[in-house]
């Protein structure tokens, strides 16, 4: 249930950022998420922080400070996206479900909430899909598919791909979001924003280097693929 609420919070924040010209903020949130995982490991799971991890946390804090000065306020949406995704990761780490079972359970938890919101909207305001075209409805349906498929693939990959491979994939989402925000949606990248992102990239690079060093020291071996039934 907690994982479902964390995921719903994260995705709602992301969708709000996308629809309100804050795609770059969303990129920063997912850039800071791996650093949040490191912090959660230390604070929640009482894991010992290695020097590279402590350095990454310091750089992440510096990134937020730089962006706060540039914005004139803390990068609230980016921090909330990172925090909610970190909470989701911690909750998924504590469950023993496979990817499909876990995501299905989370969906069932959120279904009554979604139905209640639709009923409230229809009762005390305009219908949720009022004015929507057939194309809008189709796009909304496929947006659900575009949400579920990456979550399933990530859940499956986390159990079948070694750390040295999975760690570098953390760069993909924030990179795509940053490119979309600047190149497609025309969001600005002033010097202070570039500086904040640069420091955040350094923090994520430090986490990745630490993961590579630690996996190499432990002699990590990539597990063999698990055959699918049927």
Could you characterize what this model shows?
The chain is an all-alpha fold and 230 residues long. It has 9 helices and no strands. It has helices at residues 2-19, 23-43, 51-71, 76-93, 99-124, 134-160, 163-166, 172-184, 191-217. The longest helix has 27 residues, at 134-160. Mean pLDDT is 80; it is low at 220-230.
Summarize it.
With 230 residues, the chain is mainly alpha-helical. Helices cover 76% and strands 0% of the residues.
**H-E string:** HHHHHHHHH
Number of strands: 0
Assembly annotation? single chain
Helix share, percent? over 70%
Give the class from helix and strand content and strand pairing.
Answer: mainly alpha
Radius of gyration: 19 Å
- The average pLDDT score comes to 80
Strand content: under 5%
Termini separation (Å)? 31 Å
**Main sheet makeup:** none
| Shape field | globular
**In DSSP terms, counting alpha (H) and pi (I) runs of 4 or more, how many helices?**
9
Residue windows where pLDDT falls under 50 for at least 5 positions? 220-230
């Amino acid at each position: 249930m907690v994982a479902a609420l964390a995921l719903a919070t994260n995705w709602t924040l992301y969708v709000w950022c996308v629809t309100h010209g804050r795609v770059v903020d969303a990129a920063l949130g997912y850039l800071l998420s791996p650093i949040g995982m490191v912090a959660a490991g230390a604070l929640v799971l009482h894991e010992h922080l290695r020097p590279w991890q402590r350095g990454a946390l310091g750089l992440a804090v510096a990134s937020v400070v730089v962006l706060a000065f540039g914005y004139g306020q803390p990068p609230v949406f980016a921090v909330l996206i990172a925090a909610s995704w970190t909470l989701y990761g911690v909750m998924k780490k504590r469950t023993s479900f496979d990817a499909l079972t876990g995501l299905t359970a989370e969906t069932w938890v959120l279904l009554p909430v979604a139905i209640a919101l639709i009923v409230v909207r229809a009762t005390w305001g305009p219908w949720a899909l009022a004015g929507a075209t057939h194309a809008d409805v189709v796009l909304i349906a496929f947006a659900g598919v575009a949400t579920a498929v990456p979550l399933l693939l990530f859940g499956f990959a986390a159990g079948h791909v070694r750390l040295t491979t999975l760690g570098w994939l953390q760069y993909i989402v924030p990179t795509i979001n940053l490119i979309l925000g600047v190149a497609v949606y025309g969001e600005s990248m002033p010097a202070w924003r570039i500086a904040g992102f640069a420091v955040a990239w350094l923090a994520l690079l430090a986490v990745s280097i630490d993961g590579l060093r630690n996996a190499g020291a432990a002699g990590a071996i990539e597990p063999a693929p698990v055959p699918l039934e049927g």
